[in-house]
Amino acid sequence: MRLAQLLTLLLFIRLTLVHGDSSNAKHYIVYMGEHSHPSSESVIKANHEMLASITGSLERAKESALHHYSKSFRGFSAMLTPEQAQRVAESNGVVSVFESRTNKLHTTHTWDFLGIDSIQQYKNHQMDSSSDVIVGVIDTGVWPESESFSDEGLGPVPEKFKGECETGEQFELSNCNRKIIGARFHFKGFEAENGPLESQGSTFFRSARDSDGHGSHTASTIAGSVVENVSLLGMARGTARGGAPGARLAIYKACWFNFCSDADVLLAMDDAISDGVDILSLSLGPNPPQSIYFEDAVSIGAFHAFHKGILVSCSAGNSFFPGTASNVAPWILTVAASSVDRIFNSNVYLGNSRVLKGFSLNPLKMDASYGLVAGSAAAAKGVSPNNASFCKNNTLDATLISGKIVVCTIESITDDRKAKSIFIRQGGGVGIILIDPLAKDVGFQFVLPGTLIGQQEAVQLQQYMKTEKNPVAKIYPTVTVLNTKPAPAVAGFSSMGPNIITPEIIKPDITGPGLNILAAWSPVAVVETAERSVNYNIISGTSMSCPHISAVAAVIKSIKPSWSPAAIKSAIMTTATVLDNTKHLIERQPFGNETTPFDYGSGHVNPTAALEPGLVYDYDSTDLINFLCSIGANPAQLKNLTDQLTHCQKPFVPSYDLNYPSIGVSNMNGSLSVHRTVTYYGEDPTVYDAYIDHPVGVKVRVTPSKLCFTKTGEKITFRVDFMPYKGSNGSFVFGALTWSNGLHKVRSPIGVNVLSV
Questions:
Q1: In the prediction, which pLDDT does 16 show?
Q2: How many whole angstroms separate alpha carbon 49 and alpha carbon 93?
Q3: Which of 207, 220, 283, 543 is flagged as catalytic?
Q4: Contact present, 341 and 487 (Cβ < 8 Å)
Q5: In 155-232, where do the E strands start and end?
Q6: Is 214 a known active-site residue?
Q7: pTM of the model as a whole
């Protein structure tokens, strides 16, 4: 054991003894909102004094405290018993106290598919200024030697950046450059909740260096430099680049072994806000259900980032089902995942010359055809055929699968696909065909030749195996196929609305490429198919779509540096498309289901159109305070939140009147009016006309129906009257409002739940 590891373990044991294994102490976050203390030191001193009044002594207070949030807002995290946490919650100045939860990571050609050649686009819009845009990435760190993080051609580090390049294990000052301009790492929260890093049994670096790959992948998707001839073992070969290759990166490592402690994430957000980032990108989130906004670390940090003019882009999650979208606060840009016009075929050639279309990331070559056996026909002793069909550990008879391609099925959507191939290889099997209709579009990797097939192909395969005495097959390596249709489609795993906290705020906000994305990787994070180091990898998730949107936001920020987070968000949302490349409504994988804004938000991102949206829906912190009032915040909470006496406006501004780029009403009882204000950004006088796509059972009228603008920056308020004539049976019905002047189309989705007419 290394000396540093030994010291860390001893420190952890000491903390355990201090707090007592026999006690019921847990890791809590105490959030206290804005503060007027003159320095971080004075905040920490005040935190210790408050904690001492609970623990009984200053020494115990210091031992209990793990993190102090002292830069952008006030708070701390500490090991407390539930009784102590309750006493803290009753103290003056405390907004909320909640247990620190564990978040999960929501784990090239895409920019071509989005219709933007990044380099040319930057030239057209004088994108040299993008060198001053700083994107903070909270993730698993970065592999700084990757070619994607070359700083060639970049100017000096922007003077506005106040961050640091923290050294640590295998991470020196020289690992930062003019691309990676800052790097920090936080782990105390993770260790308090999971034990020492050394006890996790996996490779790691106690520094900002990435041992997982996820952080390098997301950071390079946002701002990776141009790298020619990149692929994953020959798959998806092409030029890798981020969406904003001129932007700078500030790296905040708060995630370890695929998990991220709330307390560490919140500290990273506190740092990033203080350091001076322009955009914050977080490809992580809690397991559903989402907590209320001020008992959720990301929502808290994002609120203060918004207040300081920083746009926060977050993944919506990979939880498949309605009501599972996370990171849904209205001050967060929430991103769903969709496909691009590229698929990875690993086809199966049967002994009867028939070809079955398969899907996987399979670089492995079979030199000959091999016998086929169903997992259900190769059950180990004492295992039922049904259980054996799932090809899980200790369910297959090695004598029956040795030298064979094993045909397996899925027990549940959360099955570990790679593990099935490991168990087959351990038994002597040579390949896997996985019948997996729900996930066949996702590029899974196996440890031996393998592919996923859908239900139609499964019927053909099973018929062949039933009629042929000695069925054989050969799995071919993956072929990359471009220009496929239809695309995009919402990924089957992408979490869906409605927003369970405030359903009148339609979530997600937007969708972007998140399926089978190639980007930089950590060479110590071995990929399954190669079982060796690679510098670039292909993975899927809303983790991958979020950085695409963060990059678009960075581009807009570079062109419109004075724009607020809400204005940038509006530009991205109102210019999105709801049509695929066949000019039909975007579908949802894997079965082509009909979609709604609860799948894709405002639609699929259109980066070029977002640069010049025409009209913008803007809102600020005051509007958010009014929104919080409308959902029940009291004056004491608001005072702590803003560090000033704040009274709710009477009567309350309805929550559906937040000037959001989408329009939602969650409880419509009879006719109702919604108000919005748009700001014009253009050179000449112009007139926008309203076009309505009416929700089923609801008549919609817009007043005025024409908006006449004479100069840029001009604001006009309009009213949207909803007149329901049929209930919606407890479900939302959808429509849209589009403003058009013949050049720009500014579209807002509408979602209403009609309770009575």
A1: 42
A2: 13
A3: 543
A4: yes
A5: 180-185, 227-232
A6: yes
A7: 0.90
